[in-house]
Amino acid sequence: MSPSVRLQEMIRVIRGARTQGEERGVIQRECAAIRAQFRQADNGTRSHNLAKLLYVHMLGYPAHFGQMECVRLIASPRYNEKRVGYLGAMMLLDEKQDASLLITNSIKNDLSHSSQYVQSLALCTLACMGSAEMCRDLAPEIDLMKLIVMTLTFQAALCAVHMVRKVPELGELFTPAARSLLSEKNHGVLHGAVVLITELCERNPDTLEQFRKAVPELVLMMKGLVMSGYSPEHNVAGISDPFLQVRILRLLRILGRNNDTASDAMNDLLAQVATNTDSSKTAGSAVLYETVLTVMDIKSESGLRVLAVNILGRFLLNNDRNIRYISMTSLQKIVQTDHNAVQRHRGTIVDCLKDQDASVKRRALELSLALVSAVNIRSLMKELLLFLSSCPPELRAHTTSGIFNAAERYAPSQRWHIDTILHVLTTAGGDVRDETVPNLIQLITTATELHCYTVHKLYRALITDISVQSLVQVACWCIGEYGDLLLRGECEETEPVQVHALDDVLDALETVLQSHMSSPATRGFALTATMKLSTRITRIRSIVSIYGSCIDVELQQRAVEYNALFKKYDHMRAAVLERMPVIDKSSPGHTNGESAGGTIKELEPTKLTQEIVFPQEPSNQVSDENDCNKLRYFRRTLGPTYRLFVTFISHSHPPQSVQLQMKAPSGDVIPAHGLGQVTQTVLLNNPNKVSLKIRVRVCYTSQSSVCQDTVQIDSFPSTAW
């Protein structure tokens, strides 16, 4: 290809290239020819070569070597060269390029040029790539009122917008002229004026107050657009200048925000736009959407807000997925303030869960979860559970989390709550949060009348499938606590599982322990459940002993501790392995093991020392949360007396210099009304005289009320340490 070919011929040759390599070869040869001609004197082809280079730039190839040629062409007195030079500057230069500073003086000269076309080129270039320094230097040259005569107001207004964004304090120069532009009839001038006023109001609160006086004028302008007849010059799909309408609505939204007077002045207009605009075309939908945003952002009337929600409801039925998406995004923002109005469209929102578009489906899920209430919890939860069974993997975690939150907040009954969580675990147990297992365990412990129902249901799930780890963990825990209920021949709440002996239950737990699908945490739950059954099954000791040499440290530690119960503390094993008490996080005495402000409370006669915490030495001791505190507190009520089974727990490794020895308690029954007491002697050997602290936690049940309190004692006499 000859270096002197025209632009059209170069485009034809590039498009005709059969491979990318052939295209690169053509462009490289042409760029080399352009470079050579740039180095020559003015031969009349400079603008022609720069135009070809701009096309190369549009294809994504390097064209930076043409920046200085842009500067030369802008300084040229010829209009055709200026035009290509300014176009090149807008494409090849930006405010970060040093070469952009070289055209500042040329732009200043061209802003005062006698030709409006040259002025237009300078205004467009400054509005496109002007830096903050250029804006400060050239702002005095942008005289809006002077440029009105030369029909350049639209370009000047957009240039002023760019300057205000770059240097907000320059807004004071354009505020007086911007107000007068609203009286113009030309739509282009009005569009530029509205954009400029919007920018000024967003940047300066004082300017915002000043332009609130122009609300009636803007309302009148908008009414003229809505009620005007057909105008070929401004009509777009049956809507009169929707671009200007959208800009006016955005400005009204800013002016009416947090202002009663301005909001009242535009309420009638917004109702008129909402009822008279056709939403069958994209242009009409754009105007209606801006109307809805304005209604929701200002202090509008309640009826108008309902009308806005109904418009968004109609958008949900639109075939365009983009419109459905923005509709649900807007409904999500207002569902808390206009909950009842959004509820009317619940059916349509739920149908959007079946949409093929992932973004629409996600928005529908978020909105459906926000619509859950005590009134519709049962019906809406059915839809959400159905969606969970077929939802994409990336949405499962969010879906399960939302279902759990809704069930915890609005559950009509404890059985419904348990059934819902178990259904989620069965369907998507691998995507639930880490705290789901302890939360469900707490829920089960509080539902005492449902223990039989729950353990039967979980045992059936365990023998059916052990792949869902969270479900298996809860099942193991329940079997360990309430496994004896499986032997009942009948259960009021559900069809019982036929269990002839606890050996069948033990076989199920052994399957979990030996399965390659079980995680170490799951095996820990299964081993503890097995240990819980040791008071009724003799062969458990051999099973527990196997895991004393397990490669998993956590499982090994559990097995060693449980073996110690068999050997050294067999007389206490039955008491230690009693059924867990009800855990009530909301009880006044529940302090999560922390002392209340470090103060010491006087112990009541029925309270018994239950927890000892050793002070940690400055050595590298790491707190082990997985020691024998897995067996928490055990108690039960026997008529008018309290039976307390006491377990001493250390949340940290005790210093080697302190030795603990516990004597047997004097009894395990404390009579009521202060008629007796239980004592236990604890011997501490403290040869190195380290500081001693004892944390006392007391748990007991009185008349079906669970009580718990924790205090810390650190006022031992100095002779003790």
TrEMBL record:
GO cellular component: AP-1 adaptor complex
Keyword Membrane: yes
Principal location class: membrane
InterPro entries: Adaptor_Complx_Large_Subunit (IPR050840), AP1_complex_gsu (IPR017107), ARM-like (IPR011989), ARM-type_fold (IPR016024), Clathrin/coatomer_adapt-like_N (IPR002553), Clathrin_a/b/g-adaptin_app_Ig (IPR008152), Clathrin_app_Ig-like_sf (IPR013041), GAE_dom (IPR008153)
GAE domain mapped to chain residues: 595-717
Example GO BP: vesicle-mediated transport
Domain of life: Eukaryota
Location relative to the cell: Cytoplasmic vesicle membrane; Endomembrane system; Golgi apparatus
PROSITE patterns linked to this entry: GAE
Pfam families: Adaptin_N, Alpha_adaptinC2
Keyword terms, alphabetized: Cytoplasmic vesicle, Golgi apparatus, Membrane, Protein transport, Transport
UniProt membrane topology term: Peripheral membrane protein
Family membership noted in the UniProt record: Belongs to the adaptor complexes large subunit family.
PANTHER family documented for this protein: ADAPTIN, ALPHA/GAMMA/EPSILON
Protein name: AP-1 complex subunit gamma
Source organism per UniProt: Oncorhynchus tshawytscha (Chinook salmon)
